[in-house]
Specification:
By secondary structure, the protein is mainly alpha-helical. It is 63% helix and 3% strand. Strands 1-2 form a two-stranded antiparallel ribbon. Strand 1 and strand 2 (125-127) form a beta hairpin. Helix 1 packs antiparallel against helix 2, helix 2 packs across helix 3 (82-111) and helix 3 (82-111) runs antiparallel to helix 4. The longest helix has 40 residues, at 138-177. The chain is elongated, with a radius of gyration of 19 Å.
Length: 194
């Protein structure tokens, strides 16, 4: 197992910030498109963009998880209360879970759609549906689709709640504790901890 670094490396930082930006953009698109009527001329484009971003998040998140498994994260700062340290670890694991399961549940939901349409991935190609629901009737697909949609929305709301908590914790570490937690994930910032 490689030794732990004092800060995240460039690959880990790139994954973090790109996935964060895509996640925030996709949550905003998801909230916006939820209120659009079917008759809106841009709804199809917005839905396809939302799905394309979600699939991009899924791929990047799987790559990020693989990178993390072979490149351990820096240790938490010394002196953290064990309960706070445990919550920090749980939050990070839960984020990994969410950034993989939210887009995966979306892909499953689209795959269970009675319409059967794949995703027009940024207008470049058709991303295929998962073949798990082949041979089911429209009525069966409707029930599965509804259940997956509820799951997808619930998980998205979990991320909506968790992101501000994560940001607040990073700012707390930076401004109140004065440790290097935030600096370790921001490119170009010096890290004092050794």
């Amino acid at each position: 197992m490689p030794a732990r670094a004092v800060r995240y490396n460039t690959v880990a930082m790139t994954f973090h910030w790109v996935i964060a930006a895509l996640l925030i953009a996709n949550v905003a698109l998801g909230l916006y498109m939820g209120d659009l009527p079917r008759s809106d001329p841009y709804k199809f484009l917005i839905v396809q963009t939302h799905k394309s971003i979600g699939l991009t998040i899924l791929v990047l998140s799987l790559l990020r998880l693989g990178w993390r498994l072979v490149n351990p994260a820096p240790h938490l700062p010394a002196g953290m209360h064990p309960l706070v340290a445990g919550l920090a670890r749980f939050t990070h694991y839960f984020f990994y879970f969410l950034i993989i399961v939210i887009p995966l549940s979306g892909w499953l939901m689209v795959s269970a759609s009675p319409l059967g349409n794949g995703t027009n991935y940024f207008g470049l190609f058709i991303w295929p549906n998962l073949g798990l629901f082949a041979g089911q009737t429209r009525a069966q697909l409707h029930d599965v689709h509804e259940m997956l949609e509820t799951t997808h929305v619930f998980l998205a709301w979990s991320a909506i709640v968790l992101v501000p908590i994560h940001v607040a914790a990073a700012l707390y570490h930076h401004f109140l504790r004065g440790d290097d937690v935030l600096r370790r994930m921001v490119p170009g910032m010096n890290v004092r901890d050794a």
